[in-house]
Amino acid sequence: MSDSPRHPTTPPIAPHTAQQYDALRSEIARSTRLLVGFSGGADSALLAYAAHDVLGEAAVAATAVSASLPAAERRGAADFCRELGIAHVEVCTDELGRPEYARNGADRCFHCKSALFDALEPLARMSGADIAVGTNLDDLGSRHRPGQTAAAQRDVRRPLADAGLTKADVRAVSAMLGLPSAAKPAAACLASRVAYGDQVTEALLARIEAAEVTLHQLGFPESRVRSHADGAVARVEVPAADLPRLVDLRDEVTAGVKAAGFTFCSLDLDGFRSGSMNALLTLTPVAPA
């Protein structure tokens, strides 16, 4: 077990939060080597850090690289591991080349995770490592999580959930450790912005990414550009508190979204919420691939 020091900005430790981190460390210690699926989000960042803390060089963070990963997220994942001394590799995944993924049915995430595990399993076999992902306890309660099915079929480990950590716990423990990911806004792959049933293409993902870059540059770091009508319509989501400011910047937002390749730019008055595309599954069920 590694005695590597915690992040130098670690604040005073709350007893309950420290106990949760100890529980996570105990879960990780059940493996002698661990290959962590690392997207750079708060969940996988805590898991990667804790795995390095427990296993040292026997823990490796692996980031899946494809058109569905925003360039900023790829850079952020690499920076996080470099700054904290975590072993990091990138693996290319081929989900866009899989027709069952590209057709974007309700089970798209199943095929995405399958592509990830197909890429990670050879690495895990070569090093004798278990594969782990940053599933937290809240994720297990979600009704539509086909990616969880793919993980269960591959016996992929989920130390955060098994240690009893919710999303709020992940952020609290990360803050205790001084991790830069503690307050990072929720992130998801670019394909999650495409309406179910619309084809996922590399060109469409690039347009979504370009439109979101515009929003970030205008001061909306927590935002989504959802694509509808095969890429003709962009539905912009920002937190409800930011709606008045976005309306004030309507011309700049519209110009940036249309420059990215969308014909229409609409504003969702319900504001930002993760997984909003899943509402389409209750309106018009999309047959699985």
Walk me through what this model shows:
The protein is of the alpha/beta class and 289 residues long. It folds into two domains: 163 residues, Rossmann fold (3-Layer(aba) Sandwich); 94 residues, Alpha-Beta Plaits (2-Layer Sandwich). Helices cover 45% and strands 12% of the residues. The chain contains 13 helices and seven strands. Helix 5 packs parallel to helix 7. The termini are far apart. Keywords: Transferase. This is ATP-dependent sacrificial sulfur transferase LarE. GO terms for molecular function: transferase activity.
What are the salient characteristics of this protein?
289 residues; alpha/beta; Rossmann fold; Alpha-Beta Plaits; 2 domains; 13 helices; disordered C terminus; transferase; Ni-pincer_cofactor_biosynth; Rossmann-like_a/b/a_fold; ATP-dependent sacrificial sulfur transferase LarE
Offer a quick outline of the entry.
The chain is an alpha/beta fold and 289 residues long.
Distance between the termini: 44 Å
What's the story with the biggest beta sheet? 4 strands, parallel
Would you give the CATH topology of the largest domain?
Rossmann fold
Give, in spatial order, the strands making up the sheet with the most strands: 3-2-1-4
